[in-house]
Design a protein that fits this description.
Elements (H helix, E strand, L loop, with lengths): L14 H20 L6 H24 L7 H7 L10 H11 L19 H6 L2 H10 L2 H6 L1 H18 L3 H23 L5 H19 L15 E2 L4 H5 L6 H6 L8 H7 L1 H7 L4 E2 L2 H8 L17
Parallel strand pairs: 1-2
Helix pairs in contact: 1-2, 2-10
């Protein structure tokens, strides 16, 4: 497998990101320790753990784009503990950087983060699997079913790559095993959340992240028209570190998360013209439109029918 070129690290320390990483790590430690200390504690601690898991993934996204310090090794170390459990950081890094080849966005074969299937592959699926994937194209389905579906596909691909001797995949999983050690030690020695409950919280954290990825790209003839703008400034925008301004992020992937809103506001008309008006006012608007209503077909509507 060809490894994507890594971005250059930030030239100077980005203190908002550094402080947020330290704050999220500290909050996760505190919430996991608090959870079993009183009958009321899980009602406060468990949502905080889910919030930390989702925010930690968003911070890993910042790190893979070269933030927040001039040292790539330090950047990776800052988000090293695998509190989200499921996805090796370096596999996330490599697949996401490959996804940033905008000419390939949404392609069922060339975009590793595409939610579309090629029409020929869709036609071969059994009806039960078609029903499952159709449900996954509603927002409710993406939150509840999406993590399991994406993890199954991800593991299938990585197992095949590992069996074929892909050293990058093998190295990423070895590092992931090491990154699980501090999480397991903390949860075993200090944390008060049973492992089955923590697995459920990690799954829910991944489900929240699926809200962000649900419609961030669409099928469009022009690559510039494939990335969404969601003009939300509320809690979900913070959890996703302004990645709801997704067309801005794809246009400036090296720009820190806290600089995206100002850039968008200064050039709003340009970005909306560039992405052909692919815009939503808020995440509430998305919930209202697509919670139980499919937004896209599973088969890529612009992909050739032939394999």
């Amino acid at each position: 497998m060809t490894q994507p070129r890594l971005p250059r690290p930030s030239e100077t320390p980005e203190w908002p990101t550094i402080l947020l990483i330290l704050g999220v790590t500290g909050l996760w430690c505190g919430a996991t320790a608090l959870a079993g200390t009183a009958p009321w504690a899980p009602w406060l601690a468990w949502p905080l753990v889910v919030l930390c898991i989702a925010l930690h993934s968003s911070l890993q996204h910042e790190v893979l784009h070269g933030h927040p310090t001039p040292s790539a090794a330090l950047n990776e170390a800052l988000v090293f503990p695998a509190i989200g459990l499921f996805i090796p950081y370096r596999r996330f890094r490599d697949s996401h950087l490959a996804h940033h080849v905008d000419e390939r966005l949404t392609d069922p074969y060339d975009d590793p983060e595409s939610n579309y299937l090629a029409p020929a592959a869709w036609a071969r699926l059994p009806s039960a699997l078609r029903l499952l994937l159709t449900a996954n194209n509603t927002l409710a389905g993406r939150i509840l079913l999406g993590p399991a579906i994406s993890l199954a596909c991800f593991l299938h691909g990585d197992i095949r790559a590992a069996l074929a001797g892909d050293r990058g995949v093998l190295r990423a999983w070895a590092l992931h095993g090491a990154a699980l050690v501090p999480v397991a030690l903390w949860l075993g020695a200090v944390g008060t959340i049973p492992w089955p409950a923590y697995l459920a919280l990690a799954y829910l954290g991944l489900g929240i992240l699926k809200i962000r990825t649900f419609l961030e790209h669409r099928a469009h003839l022009a690559a510039r028209g494939r990335s969404v703008i969601i003009e939300d400034r509320g809690p979900l925008a913070f959890v996703f570190l302004n990645n709801n301004l997704h067309a801005v992020h794809h246009g400036h992937p090296a720009l820190a998360w806290y600089k995206l809103p100002e850039l968008y506001e200064s050039r709003r008309a340009r970005y909306l013209q560039m992405n052909d008006g692919y815009v939503y006012r808020s995440y509430m608007d998305i919930f209202r439109r697509h919670l139980f209503r499919r937004k896209d077909p599973v088969a890529h509507p612009l992909h050739p029918l032939e394999e």
